[in-house]
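Example record for the data management plan.
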Amino acid sequence: MPQNDHHLERLHTADMELGVTDALQKHITRHVVPPKPVSDRKLRFEYSRPRILRECMGEATGVFFYVLPGIASVASFTVNGTNPLGITFFGNLLQTGFAFALGIAFAIITCGPVSGGHFNPAITICLAIWQGFPWKKVPHYIFSQIFGAFVAGLLVVGMYWPEIRALRDANIAEYGTAVFNGGAASILCSFPNPTQTNQGFLFLQEFFVDAYIGVIIWTCLDPANPFVSPTSVPWTIGLAYAAMVWGFASNTISTNLARDLGTRIVAAIFFGGEAFIYDNGYSWISILVNVPATIFATGYYEFLMRDSLQKIAAGHGKHEEGDEGLARHLTKVGTIEQGFSNSLRKNEPNNMNGKNEVV
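Corresponding structural encoding:
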């Protein structure tokens, strides 16, 4: 293999791209259903597919899986309203939080092995900054993510159109518009409450909600973390989103550029350009803040919490200059932990459960 051909292993069609599914690289050890023999014709067909097409379709499908149940849950109780006591029979924030959480988990399980399971432009950018994800793929991934949310929005509108149209007409008759929090357009994307007129407050809320989720995601990607197993990653990330929905969705949050922009375009198609200019252009907060917030979160983790030596000791990383570079570092700092030195002498991975796997 040429020395300058970094990450050449990614060129194989069955390999997983950098992302959430990094945690799975050493854990494909069983089959739920025994596979039938693969024909040469099938192998040739799969080899002929452009890799970037598979990855883009994986990202678009994953975002679709994540957004569809979430906004469908919002639609189910928005179009049905409440009874005189204010009780919603068809759903609430608890239901919506679980809908988004399960959608994210299913998206990672279904599409993560194809594309790496980013499903968020901010995560794609952070993986390019910190983990070596190819920058040339970033625009393709982001476009695919937005497209997946756009299709999910169109489909929900199509399936709920009679109810959404009736709600839109009622909103216009009563308020003169359907673009407000609780209106028909809010099924697709977020809008501030009437009392939320301070955009600085909205920025602060969106920033730290997104940063919170970003830290959880980056923690799940750390192979040295003993508390997150590969099978728990989808559910952990999904519950992080759900926790923020339960805590802040009533106060207006977005959490994902692709999820918001894709569905906001659908809202503009059916409810007009006010979807982008409502409340003095609140949409710039819901669309863009996710990116700097997630970069802040991952930078916080990388600079203050990451322990790369622990990752190397567990057999999930290596020094860029090999064992010689690692030995020079250990000599320079003058500290060698017993467990790590034993693993060097034996030339074997040394992790907490004694097996060559991520824990």
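Summary line stored alongside the record: Residues 74 and 264 are 15 Å apart (CA to CA).
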